[in-house]
């Protein structure tokens, strides 16, 4: 109950600021008579989104499935790689330079190649989403697993703990905050990469809606699609925040 009240209390300033921004936007565009093709009013965007809620909902569902699929695959791969590098340090020496090089290049730059390899369907979007996530999760978790001091590790060894036992009892709990941070960043990166990939080539998805509406100079549809995509991203982020409180309850 107390945690719920604290969450509500912390969300109120954000909601108030957002409401103030929307009101300023609404009255500003009305007073200045800004054309809809330049900057539509929030009320018009909301009316467009609600008027075609079935269409936007279906396209958003495709995008969220692709983003979550890529996020889950990339997260699992990143976690497995980080654990493997801790258990076998030689893997870190061999693979980390390659991981740093690939991570230095924006994942969006790989979209044309991924579309050529996997086609225009969902598999290419899931692949680019996984690529956007795997290295950020790997680097964050690896730094978290290395956080415990050598004295703590040696103490567990003196009690006969195995390498797996040290990893499970000491390093993983110490690395959970870093892992959750990596997951949060990875979720945002996966969603962005998937939407951009849909813009460049897809049969469906909110990114393809934005691309087609832009080509048709349909400003209201573009803004409504962006609004719906933002709501979907916020919903995913809320789930991740709830997961954070479960995984890192002691923080």
Automatic annotation (TrEMBL):
SUPFAM superfamilies reported for this sequence: MetI-like
Entry membrane topology: Multi-pass membrane protein
One Pfam family of this chain: BPD_transp_1
GO cellular component: plasma membrane
CDD domains noted in UniProt: TM_PBP2
Domain ABC transmembrane type-1: residue ranges: 60-240
Name of the protein in question: NitT/TauT family transport system permease protein
InterPro entries per record: MetI-like, MetI-like_sf
Gene3D superfamilies per record: MetI-like (1.10.3720.10)
Localization: Cell membrane
Family: Belongs to the binding-protein-dependent transport system permease family.
One annotated GO biological process: transmembrane transport
TM regions (residue ranges): 67-91, 98-120, 126-145, 166-186, 192-211, 223-243
Keyword tags: Cell membrane, Membrane, Transmembrane, Transmembrane helix, Transport
């Amino acid at each position: 109950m107390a945690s719920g009240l604290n969450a509500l209390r912390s969300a109120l300033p954000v909601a108030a600021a957002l409401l103030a921004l929307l009101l300023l936007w609404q009255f500003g565009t009305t007073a200045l008579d800004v054309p809809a093709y330049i900057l539509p009013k929030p009320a018009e965007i909301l009316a467009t989104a609600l008027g075609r809620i079935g269409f936007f909902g279906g396209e958003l569902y495709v995008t969220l499935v692709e983003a979550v699929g890529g996020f889950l695959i990339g997260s699992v791969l990143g976690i497995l790689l980080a654990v493997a590098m801790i258990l076998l340090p030689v893997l870190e020496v061999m693979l980390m330079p390659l991981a740093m090089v690939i991570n230095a290049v924006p994942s969006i730059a790989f979209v044309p190649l991924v579309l050529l390899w996997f086609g225009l369907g969902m598999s290419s979007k899931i692949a680019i989403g996984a690529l956007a996530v795997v290295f950020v999760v790997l680097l964050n978790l690896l730094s978290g697993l290395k956080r415990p001091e050598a004295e703590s590790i040696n103490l567990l060894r003196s009690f006969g703990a195995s390498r797996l036992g040290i990893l499970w009892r000491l390093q993983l709990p110490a690395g959970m905050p870093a892992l959750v941070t990596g997951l949060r960043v990875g979720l945002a990166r996966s969603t962005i990469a998937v939407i951009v990939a849909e813009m460049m080539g897809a049969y469906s998805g909110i990114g393809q809606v934005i691309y087609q509406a832009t080509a048709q100079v349909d400003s209201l549809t573009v803004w409504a699609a962006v609004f719906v995509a933002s709501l979907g991203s916020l919903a995913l982020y809320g789930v991740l925040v709830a997961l954070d409180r479960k995984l890192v309850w002691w923080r």
